[in-house]
């Protein structure tokens, strides 16, 4: 299958932004309402929270994508029946509501993550997060053609802060924090907000120094992998579970997409997203 030209990528990026707006508009309409928590088995066999809003958004986005691009695959956190995903083919990877626990408790720290992947590469990304600066939120989108856009405008990188976002298990382990700090990827001020999309957006916007994810699932990071391939930003990976971690700069997205576990959808690496 041949690749996509710049015009096609522009259309896909515009669609990804519209999908993100659709998702978060629906989320914001319902964030102050009582949202019943449903517990489902995730891809690792553990229980996790989902709400009707998660499922509704998935259906909305899937319907839009399949109507416009019926030959494209869709991998959503809320629809993981297929273990035969081929990341060489055109595929949309979506997390309809990243931060469901926050959302279900009325905490406005969540996001929606949309990415378009082809030939083992993230080609287009869109993230939408609530914003304290205006009603609604911010839409961060990216493609190789456009670079990073914030609310459809060119984004100028600003000096990053000293906050780093880390998983909950690391947050409470001072020995591990000291170990990671030796790499200068983490600051001395670290947080966990409960939404990788939101935390990643904070780093992109310069409101955070780095984001560490422990062997995340592909829908958690697919959009970020694209955005952090842009200049002034970097991605480092290390084999998960290793005591003496060796961190290497990610040179090709192939290394991620060709390593994804077919059952759990985990990427097989710990991954750092940083501003440099």
What can you see in these coordinates?
- With 276 residues, the protein is an alpha+beta fold.
- The protein contains 8 helices and 15 strands.
- The protein has 2 domains: 6-154, Fructose-1,6-Bisphosphatase, subunit A, domain 1 (Fructose-1,6-Bisphosphatase, Chain A, domain 1), CATH 3.30.540; 163-275, 3-Layer(aba) Sandwich (D-Maltodextrin-Binding Protein, domain 2), CATH 3.40.190.
- The strands form 3 sheets. The protein has a 7-stranded mixed β-sheet, with helices on both faces. Strands 11-10-12-15-13-14 form a 6-stranded mixed β-sheet, covered by helices on one side.
- α1 packs antiparallel against α2 (52-68) and α6 runs parallel beside α7.
Keywords:
alpha+beta; seven-stranded mixed β-sheet; D-Maltodextrin-Binding Protein, domain 2; Fructose-1,6-Bisphosphatase, Chain A, domain 1; single chain
* Topology, number of strands: 15
- Overall pLDDT: 87
- Poorly predicted ranges: none
List the strand order in the largest sheet: 3-4-5-6-7-8-9
Distance between the termini: 35 Å
Short summary:
With 276 residues, the protein is α+β, with helices and mostly antiparallel strands. The protein is built from 8 helices and 15 strands.
Give a topology summary.
Layout: H1 6-30, E1 38-41, E2 47-50, H2 52-68, E3 73-76, E4 91-98, H3 100-104, E5 111-118, E6 121-130, E7 137-143, E8 147-150, E9 153-154, E10 163-165, H4 168-171, H5 174-181, E11 189-191, H6 196-204, E12 210-213, H7 218-227, E13 233-239, E14 248-249, H8 254-257, E15 269-275
Parallel strand pairs: 3-4, 10-11, 10-12
Antiparallel strand pairs: 1-2, 4-5, 5-6, 6-7, 7-8, 8-9, 12-15, 13-14, 13-15
